[in-house]
Amino acid sequence: MGKQLVLVGGGHAHLTILTHLDRFTGGGWRATVISRSAYHYYSGMGPGLLSGVYAPRDLRFHIRRMTEDRGGQFIEDGVTRVDPGARLLYRRRGAPIAYDVVSFNTGSSVDFDAAHCRHARSVFPVKPIENLLAAREAVRRRLKSGPLTLCVAGGGPAGIELSANLRSLIRREGGQAKIVLLPGSRLLSHLSGHRLRACVERELRRQEITVMAGVRLADMDDRSATLSDGSTLSVDLLLLATGTRPSRIFQDSGLPVGDDGGLLVDDTLRAAGHPEIFGGGDCIAFGPRPLPRVGVHAVRQNPVLLNNLTVALTGRGSLQKYTPQRVFLLILNMGDGRGVFFRNGVVWAGKSAFRLKDWIDRGFMKKFQVSGETG
Questions:
Q1: SS3 category, 108
Q2: Domain boundaries, the chain
């Protein structure tokens, strides 16, 4: 039998491989995809899912169909450990899976360690993206009982967009709510653009969102949030957008990792010391320099991974290098059909910014929605 390629995760960095999976299965190799869900949701449109601008079918890829339509095997499961010596992947359920070449695109989870937050019924981490649909339904249901206090923890793009889209949801439902954003030290602290920050602050004020700069979320139960200064805030629902971290798969498996626990890869996206292991997206630590966890990197790693997995399986051709761009486009969905555009110091806000973002996002979806996702 031919060699076995295994893709762990059906995220953004594997989409090009999935659409070309018949390149492998048609060449005599076996291809297996292991993913915790038959669908993968595009995070860039997640805030619009919360507000109701998008339906679930607008931002999902049918990973199972993409795999099976191209001759691959799909396994709905999660990988818990890797044995790189035996080249085995241990799963939550079922027997281990052998591989000749494996690529990881397992994403990341919300980075928050409070003891009670993870168990509170009023707390919704923003990953996986499907949580935002559950949060939307929870808000709609609770609005029937009267005005709400809604809280978003996190001052990055996700926290900002979710705050604004919560306001849009409240307006769509004809309800009332106080919305509080806890950004930590300040909004967009990882970006140096003060013009962008000032523009976002104006948009949030227009949306009547309270920004409590200088405090962080420390803990949360089903009715109140405890803040880093010791104060408490009565909250009906909390969205956690406090940054992300890779899973512990790689640490627990003794594979090389970066400071944050992500799989350490070189500029060809291959794991250090393991030429048969590759990775992309949020789950990796890029050896040449740290990369922010933004979707543009995962998307641009697609063709590099496709080429390099082919080279690793065939032994023919040359590995390509991934060269990250240092300047990238950021458009924030600020709700109510408005957006904030930022690229290389240029900032502007308005409905045209959101229309541009929507056009880009829908174009991306159209490229990879090839398996009946919209049905």
A1: coil
A2: 4-36+77-108+246-314, 111-243
